[in-house]
Please model this.
Amino acid sequence: MQTRWDIGEPEAPTINSETEQLKSELLTLNMGPQHPATHGVLRIEIWTDSEIVAHAIPHLGYLHRCMEKHAENLDYRGIIPFVDRLDYLAAMNMEWTYAMTVEKMLGTEVPRRAELLRIITGELQRIASHLMAFGTYALDLGAFTPFLYAFEEREKILRLFEEVSGSRLLYNYIWIGGVWNDWTNEQIERASQFCDTMEEEAKKYHELVSTNKIFIERTANVGVMSLQDCFDYGASGPVLRGSGFKWDLRKNIPYSLYSEFDFDVPVGTGEVGQVGDCWNRYIVRMKEVVESIKIIRQAIAKLEPGPVMGKVPKIIKLPKGEVYVRAECPRGELAFHLVSEEGGKKPYRLKVKSPCFTHVSMLPHIAPGQMIADFVASVGSIDIVLGEVDR
Amino acid sequence: MNTTVHQTGSVKDYFSSLYKGVTSTAKGMWITFKYVWAVKPVSIEYPEVREVLPERARMRLFNDVQNCISCTQCAMACPVDCIYIASEKMPEGSEIKKTSNGQPIRLLLTQFTIDTALCCYCGLCTTVCPTECLTHSHDYEFSQYTIDSMKYDYLAPDVISWRDRIVK
Model:
């Protein structure tokens, strides 16, 4: 069979001498696009030797919405609803990065309260996204209950966002120059209450899943991505940190007001399994939830009344130039490359650098030699959102 | 190539991992078991019980045509172009009405249609409206059998009659 990439007939992996004798034709198996373990509409073509994956080829494009081309025909404010739909589980962070891109070009000063509100919403969104990752990862591995606990907490965040912005998933809340609506004191109070309950819940999750022997057996030493692989492919976010490299844009190249905040960057230490395996990637996310709670508490303490919208012209026209802005999103480093023409109301080009795309590209590298069930665990652990991969 | 090789350890390892498996699972089971009586249900039984939506919730759009001045700003702000507006000059000699916030209505609105199936509920149109006649209502149950019936003509009498319910 010829594939699009013409990789030829792959060699079956050699496990030991017994399977060597049993080696026969490879079986082609389609995982997806409607497979619950692929988190969306990812199709992975797997070539298997009995139950061992010989080759895995991800086929992308099932959720392609032509967002980058659409953006060339929209004004700068109208792009925000499209940007929301990139990573629909962390829409706040997508909007925030896009808003920063245009603000950098425009030279807009964002009011302090708006920046703090952006940090609060961004970090709450990070918690919501990691809760989703936690829930669905447990679901992939056959545990249904943690999913329900994660959704119970996520619902509180979504409810808060619905009151603030008016929508539950695709907010259009962070605008160029600030944020749309101000938070009331009651809503801020609820956010800090949520931090208290979330801290307790995080401990519960550790007891329920992280220390569970079955979970450790399924994830430790599975899907190991070495640090060199991560550098070669350009991985970022929890995948890079799970491989033991301390790199977080919020800490290393602080944007917004992150330089004022005190928080740690959790990395995979290999206390269970080895550095760079599924368990370490998972635990980095769970530790990040606790760090996000720290940031939210500090941001709430810093809040002072003030305007939430900076001075932005009614019709945004950017000068000629290019700008590249990146930010730390729940899934890794998201970046926008914006090219504008002189006095244009629309961008000439808007390129999105998506973290999930690089992580999906790593799958063919880690797949050979794994069991199919372990491969499912590997796909789940990189926590992809296909809206961002295909754009 | 990273193959997972499960080596068979000593008998002691076997039993200790078995013990760990049972105890850690029992710990998780205990957390779940507590939910039987200690925690109240958090889900609501939807068709019978309905949540009150927050004030800013963005659901189906509603245009109060009596206050619309046909400025087409909403249609220009819309990122998916789902608002269709047509207007013509006021007939000679007719008195110029005013909107609720005092702006004169100089054009006669002949069509105001929103394709709700195309709408992405982003709320950009409502923020640019100078007379605040275009708003998001709190209706969220409006599924239809055909996609054409998702197009709402806001000048139609049956749609105008929503006004008593929505506009306060």
